[in-house]
Design brief:
Strand content: 15-25%
CATH class: Alpha Beta
Order of helices and strands: HEHEHEH
CATH topology: Rossmann fold
Number of helices: 4
CATH superfamily: Response regulator
Radius of gyration: 21 Å
Number of strands: 3
CATH architecture: 3-Layer(aba) Sandwich
Distance between the termini: 65 Å
Length: about 110
């Protein structure tokens, strides 16, 4: 085997290993809970698209749960409790009122 063929084969193998490892499916599906007053695709679609650009594939490595208060801030705490009960990994919210509601079940849990 000549030297060029050996180097080419070695380099191809070295570069192929990381590509094969990256293509494997992760075992855990991470769960995001989105808590807001109403469905807002202008905010959620870019978030999901940005996660997709970083390798998160919806329904394979990422699960997204939407909970909406439908304009009733009193529902925020109950919906946040539901999200915490379903063991989401992170809760995303835009408003201070829903963020504070999401913190309350966590304080009681610890």
């Amino acid at each position: 085997m000549d030297r060029r063929r050996f180097l080419l084969t070695s380099l191809t193998g070295a570069f192929a290993v990381p590509l094969g490892a990256e293509a494997q499916v992760a075992g855990k599906v991470y769960r995001i809970g989105i808590l807001g007053p109403a469905p807002n695709p202008r905010l959620t679609d870019p978030l999901i698209a940005a996660l997709g650009e970083r390798g998160w594939v919806r329904e394979r490595t990422l699960s997204v749960e939407f909970h909406h208060t439908q304009g009733d801030p009193e529902r925020a705490e109950a919906l946040a409790r539901e999200l915490v009960g379903t063991d989401v990994d992170v809760i995303v919210t835009k408003l201070t009122t829903t963020a504070m509601a999401a913190r309350r079940p966590l304080r009681r849990r610890s």
